[in-house]
Amino acid sequence: MRPKALYVETVIRTDLDTLWRHTQDPVLHRRWDLRFAEIAPIDGLDGHFRYVSRFLGVTVAGVGVSAASRDWPDGSRTSVLRFASADPLSLISSGAGFWRYTPVSGGVRFVTGFDYGTRWGRFGRLADRLFRPVFGWMTAWSFDRLRLWLETGIPPEDQPLTAPSAARCGRTRPRDQATAGASS
Which residues of 106-139 are buried (b: 16+ CB within 10 A; e: fewer)? Predict the structure, then answer.
């Protein structure tokens, strides 16, 4: 059975352009996202970047590309991403996902959905049964860290580790969106 793609959502009391800048600029993104120790653009390749992740004492590197972005008639915006790692220590071999920014009353609904393939055969699939929920938690915790930064002005580096909470983010894709997303 294939594991479920990861999904996280939150509402952030900010405007779409500010949220877009804090998620698309690698320097700002690295500051709030627990999953990445480093994110840096690749010179001469627009939208391409290198990343470094550290997890349980293991450091892995990979590359990504902002594959596309689109402004929708309803005022929302979507960014599509692909990523991969040739690092033999990386459980994740490659993957893809999206960020969706939808203006709502009082802020922006910020959503991600992503999935990835693993390496190491059967062992990798088994390891992913433990890793995937932790990776989802890390994503949600990071979204809340970003929310706190934009709503309170307290930079991520100055927030106590207990301030952000993954529990404040939705982690189950609503049925009506899953159906609507499949048809669009």
Answer: ebbbbbbbbebebbeeeebeeebeebbeebbbbb
Residue 182 clears pLDDT 80, i.e. is over it: no
Question: Strands of 48-55's sheet, edge to edge?
Answer: 6-12, 107-118, 92-104, 77-84, 58-71, 48-55, 38-41
Q: What is the rounded CA–CA span in Å between residue 24 and residue 36?
A: 14
For 57-90, how does the pLDDT look when each residue is reduced to its tens digit (9 = 90+)? Answer: 889 999 999 988 999 999 999 999 999 999 999 9
Angle between helical axes of 16-24 and 121-152 (0-180°, round to 10) = 140
The string of DSSP letters for 68-113 reads EEEE-TTS-EEEEEEEE---TT-SEEEEEEEEEEEEETTEEEEEEE
Position 181 confidence tier, pLDDT thresholds 50, 70, 90: very low
pLDDT tens figures, 14-31: 999 999 999 999 899 999
**Which 3 state secondary structure label does DSSP give 136?**
helix
